[in-house]
Amino acid sequence: MDLVLLSGSGHPHLARAMAGRLGIERAHCDVSRFPDGELQVSVDPAMRGGDAYVLQPVGPPVDQNLIELLMLADACRRAGAVRVTALTPYLGYARQDRRTISGGALGLRVVGDLLRAAADRLVVVDPHTYAIEAALGIPLESLTAVPILAEAVRRPDPERVVIVAPDAGAIKLAERYAVLLRAPVAVVHKRRISGEAVRVIDVAGEVQDRIPVIIDDMISTGGTVEAAIGAILDRGCRTPVTVAATHGLFVGGALDRLSRLPVERIVVSDTLPMPSDRAAQIDVRSIASLLAVAVAKLHRDEPLGELAVYD
Ligand code: R5P
Hints:
Elements: E1 3-7, H1 12-22, E2 29-33, E3 39-43, E4 51-55, H2 62-78, E5 83-87, H3 107-118, E6 121-125, H4 132-136, E7 140-143, H5 146-153, E8 161-165, H6 171-181, E9 185-192, E10 198-204, E11 211-219, H7 223-234, E12 241-248, H8 254-259, E13 263-269, E14 283-285, H9 288-299
Parallel strand pairs: 1-4, 4-5, 5-6, 6-7, 8-9, 8-11, 11-12, 12-13, 13-14
Antiparallel strand pairs: 2-3, 9-10
Helix pairs in contact: 1-9, 2-3, 5-6
Bound molecules: ribose-5-phosphate.
């Protein structure tokens, strides 16, 4: 069966780069809207018997990108693709893997039910937590951009560096950076007050006189990173600060917020499209080769080996 790569409108640049690495053309698909706003998609019927991969990060506008992914995957199946894999390097709703308020919905479970109805499996990059696999209920492969990002933030003086997890949820991610960069880890104990505001309770680990590399799975509003920077500077950390995250959502004025802080570098991967007018502020490292190699292996039914991460 042939490998078929399709791209939704969520990140055509990454899809083009992946197709280039794979040495194939992207399959044709149409995405349009009816006058009332309903989405209509169609895919090339020549994919019958193929092994289809639909690239569509579920980032802002999250619901729009999600429904487009679901419809493209469904169209592939109806066109006769033998297997449909959703490639969502960033998966929105992954933070809703549990109920955090009384009367809340389990958002990730809802998304998982929808994905399971449309696709056979899912590929993500550095998910918010590995617990998403249980809530999603669809076969999942998790890749990691950490080696790419760690290489980008590597310093010539590792003995002066501290890797900072800006909350307890980022500890395991921080440990993966720490192994690659041969540096210790410090952890900020944070409490979220609202969608944008967080409060720091304490910092565990030695940060005094060290040069910080703050890592996280994602930067959304920048509130978490801002709070972490305040806390570690109060405890004697040196500047400049480097920030590395797999997913750069940069919503709610995040880049303006970070530009007011002593941040020397913000390094993210291209799991999401970047705002072109802020290119000078962000160091973007591509995961196109990582995704292309993973897709080639999955297509040949080979194990992902060290490309995949488990908790
Ligand atoms: C939270 O648990 C995540 O790992 C990130 O720390 C968080 O989502 C970042 O959001 P923001 O940039 O809005 O603080």
